[in-house]
Amino acid sequence: MGPASANPLEEKSLKKWDIDGTLEVLALDNAALPLPLSLCNFSSFALGLPPPPVHYSQKMSLLTDLINMNLSDTTEKIIAEYIWVGGSGMDMRSKARTLSRPVSDPWKLPKWNYDGSSTNQAPGEDSEVILYPQAIFGDPFRRGNNILVMCDTYNPAGEPIPTNKRHAAAKIFNHPDVLVEEPWYGLEQEYTLLQKEVKWPLGWPVGGYPGPQGPYYCGVGADKAFGRDIVDAHYKACLYAGINISGINGEVMPGQWEFQVGPSVGISAGDELWVARYILERITEVAGVVLSFDPKPIHGDWNGAGAHTNYSTKSMRKEGGYEVIKKAIEKLGLRHSEHIAAYGEGNERRLTGRHETADINTFKWGVANRGASIRVGRDTEKEGKGYFEDRRPASNMDPYVVTSMIAETTILWKP
After folding, report:
1. Can you give the residue range of the structural domain that contains 38?
2. Residues contacting 269, CB < 8 A, separation 6+
3. Which tens digits make up the pLDDT trace of 141-192?
4. 191-236: per-residue pLDDT in tens?
């Protein structure tokens, strides 16, 4: 005769987990014994059962709780996410490190390094690239005292690597003549949301097309606005981070949106736009949607995506500033080809003279003319001072390049 069973209920009952997580013991001396979920840990161990099933919603709730954990309740340490521009000049990279205490001054942050051979920024035999912290923002994902850190990139000798466009821009913005003029920028970043599996705009039928453009610009409704939750989440996240985001709107092509950053002064315009792009890419990552900055994502009778750049100097904002604006526009016209070459890859597919653009080979300006290279607003003309809009930059432009080039041409360059 074998040893007595250690489990008094063994072979005397049929045991199962009910759908709501309640353990039911059936056919135990002709009586049912329900056990509440709170006793499951003890009961399952005592009865030799596996632990109760954890529903997917419970798992996600726990994950959300951990993600939203406030570290400041238990430690002074913070997490700093270092962000930089990758080898394509448009891809964003980041990695995180622990700091012993909160930091608000980027100059007090440690430099760091990464494997540049894995980002197409250095050869494998000499792969170390150094990150120099330049600007700090609040982290809308980890929150608390945690931070996002915009960095630029250097080789170990302290020289900027080719994809570091911030270094040259900072030199221009630190020029005494530029500092005196306090250049302001308002950057209009257009982008397209794509379905992940098919790389086709959000809201479009797979392999097909929606109705023609017209009802989508600033549109409302399930058949006109696609991805608004992503857009609103990004808006609030940027405000939390301390980015001077000034608005959002649906664009002319369905699945396309725009956010605006500014007015921002000098180099900060580039810092803020790059971090706003990073935050947007993180949000689309969570949403399972692909973010595209392609200046012409869909061929045919559809609007492209730009990054219209609004600009003014102190002299333009003063009485008599309209004459300063006209002289600045004249300078921009003289260097049109140089600016076009620096205003984004694939821009020739967008600047066709159609869909609210000027032809890429022609420079022209006008008041309230969205088919011009440079547009001056009615209010600026009426008041005799203000700002103008450079409509040429593509959505994939580097804001450090575009903002500094406009300042260099209009303030420093002597024809």
Report:
1. 14-53
2. 185, 187, 261, 262, 399, 403
3. 999 999 999 999 999 999 999 999 999 999 999 999 999 999 999 999 999 9
4. 999 999 999 999 999 989 999 999 999 999 999 999 999 999 999 9
One domain, residues 399 and 373: yes
3-state secondary structure of 44: helix
Domain membership of residue 365 (yes or no) is yes
Residues 87, 162: Cα–Cα separation, whole Å? 9
Residue 277 main-chain phi, psi, to 5 deg = -65, -45
DSSP code at position 161: P
Does 364 fall in a domain?
yes
- Three-state SS for 61? helix
Burial class (CB in 10 A: 0-12, 13-18, 19+), 299: exposed
Quote the CA–CA distance of 154 and 136 in Å, as a whole number.
Answer: 19
What residues contact 264, with CB distance under 8 A and at least 6 apart?
184, 185, 186, 187, 244, 272
The residues near 368 (Cβ < 8 Å, ≥ 6 apart) are 375, 376, 377, 378
For the sheet containing 31-35, what is the strand order? 14-17, 23-28, 31-35
Question: Which residue shows structure tokens 């009910």?
Answer: 18
> What is the residue-wise DSSP string for 175-189?
SHHHHHH--EEEEEE
